[in-house]
From TrEMBL:
Residues 1-98, 396-416, 647-697 are annotated as: Disordered. Signal peptide: none annotated. It comes from Drosophila pseudoobscura pseudoobscura (Fruit fly). Residues 669-678, 686-697 have a biased composition (Basic residues). The keyword Transport does not apply. This is ATP-dependent RNA helicase. The Q motif is unique to and characteristic of the DEAD box family of RNA helicases and controls ATP binding and hydrolysis. Residues 182-386 form the Helicase ATP-binding domain. Residues 9-25, 45-66, 73-83, 655-667 have a biased composition (Basic and acidic residues). Keywords: ATP-binding, Helicase, Hydrolase, Nucleotide-binding, RNA-binding. The lineage of its organism: Eukaryota, Metazoa, Ecdysozoa, Arthropoda, Hexapoda.
Amino acid sequence: MELFTVNRYTEDLRTRKDKEQKTSNEDEILQKLLQKAAKRKRKHEKAETRKQEEAPPEEKPQVEDTKVDEEEPAAKETRKEEATAVEDPTNSQDFKILGDNDSAMRKKVTEVLPPWLAYPTIIEGGSLLPDDDLEAGKDEASIENLSYLKDHTRQALKQMKIKRLFPVQRTVIPWILEAQGQPAPLRPRDICVSAPTGSGKTLAFAIPIVQLLNNRVRCKVRALVVLPVAELALQVFKVIRALCSKTELEVCLLSKQHRLEDEQEKLVEVYKGQIYSKADIVVTTPGRLVDHLHATKGFCLKSLKFLVIDEADRIMDAFFQNWLYHLDNHVRETANQLLAGTQPPLCLKELYATYGKVPHKLLFSATMSQDPEKLQNLRLFQPKLFTTVFALPVPKSDEQADGDEETTPNTGHFAGKYTTPAELTEQFCVTELRIKPLTLFALVEKYQWKRFLCFTNSTETANRLAFVMGKLFSTGPTKVAELSGKLSALVRAKTLTDFARGRINGLICSDALARGIDVADVDVVLSYETPRHIKTYIHRVGRTARAGRKGTAVTLLTEQEQAQFKKMLNEVGKALGEEISVSADTEVRHADIYKQAMEDLRKRQEKEKTIKIVQKRRVAQQTVLHKKQEEAAVNPSRPLTLMQKLQLKAGGARHVADEPHQKENKSKPTAKKGKGKSKPKETKKQRLAKQRKAIEE
Ligand SMILES: Nc1ncnc2c1ncn2[C@@H]1O[C@H](COP(=O)(O)OP(=O)(O)OP(=O)(O)O)[C@@H](O)[C@H]1O
């Protein structure tokens, strides 16, 4: 059998007669085929007519089907022949070329959210009005009137100066308590809560957890709260600890702010060879959690009842940390159980098998991800979404939005992912890139802000801006400081404390700390650079207007940035807000001091650059030297470099050169012993001369 056929160009070899005969043959075949096709067409038309005229409607399809089936192989063959006979395939009507724009079928794909995301439970009712505005007795949100709150919770809340619960707390707390109270094998659905910044999400998960764990007998880790950064973990730890103050429950904080060994001591204890847990609730960052999963003997999560993921979308974005994988593995190892939620439908057996073994997952964020793929990673069990806003008013188009601020409600979609507090006023100020720091300075001077946060897009900008602002404010009472991810955790903690106590008026921050940080009474949040993503903006501005208090957010924009920023806001149904400005002569008034500040910054940067270069060179030199010293130690017969010689002279590595020499000296006496001759004793001078010679060689 021929596996390969070689096609050769053979036209020259053919006679003219052959060619003519071939052409006539091809014509004949073509004619026959066309006739066949015409005959088939006629037959088909006849059949169609007969079908319409004679046969009863029920029977017809059957007959037709048989006919079609019978005809199909023949038709297929003919089509095959036709395709072979017709030389240019693109002439055929049936033939479609892949990638051809005309023939390609373009279908519009519409995004469809899973039902639980599309139809959430709405968090309704009440504002976050300050406590003083309400009479505690009449208020149905008052902690005295809420029957599901236990006495120890009420007492702890009173100590925290909380008299009434916020809407998100009034919705989520009773739901969790009820869901957990269901009998076996009913398992509570995992929940995602999307509520504005400062709306009290921390207490919404902390209260039910503390109440449900309070009647435990033995101390075991039953709740794990995961937060993206150490500062946030500390903040949530403080809230839960305060809430547990009237209970026996132990709360433990794990974050890179402390030594691992210290944390291990707080986490587990060994008594008579047995390991015991010292914590009921663990608050941690993902990275530190992984450290303890690997390094802390006896850190066991097999009794985990609650897994809380605060700032869930941020944690899902940072999946590189792989913490869920490690957690999952740990839980599997320790208890042979799955952290994963089983997908519905569940059979009763499965429900019984997993009941009480899989932690109840509670996800919280002000900008909950709508991306089902990301949520999929968390393997939620029949998830349920709580959100504050169901539909956001979105302007119809840019032109319309330009004309008037009237908006059309876009009902039927989950749009509660990006909501800002009602008490927040949003403003913007147009400036030039050249004088942006000066505009910022002038704004603070004009509006007399006593407590402000100013966000930049990078740690470098935060560092430089803090330097310039420090110079600009140097003559007045306003104190500013940098607060960025570049600084150590200890410095950051100290700066935050100073700010909270009023020793510092303004913080120039990078976005690392835009999320979750709860500092009371921030007058204004300034965006020195426009945030790259709407989520970042929502979290930045959320540092003010918290817990029902009023607050302002101001964004500094250049002419070019204005349109893009407006578009970004419009996409989530937000408007640009009111424009504010500083007086036109600002630049003139502060020209000297600004010029000086910029000049100082330039000098500082140059100095830093030089230091960096010198450090880099030094490191490179040291690396080369170490390498050579290592080589010399391995292979002593190799000649030494000048640098090594100098090092050896200094005595640092004398033994490296001495070693072979000493060996020689040791072997010599034995050889000489054999010969019976004794060598005259070497003087110190001679020995040194010999050593020097060896070095030079
Ligand atoms: N019921 C309440 N009454 C009064 N103040 C409250 C109440 N609940 C929470 N707070 C206060 O509101 C502030 C914000 O709470 P929390 O940090 O829980 O908000 P959040 O929704 O988690 O915000 P973010 O999304 O920015 O993290 C805190 O200072 C907290 O003490």
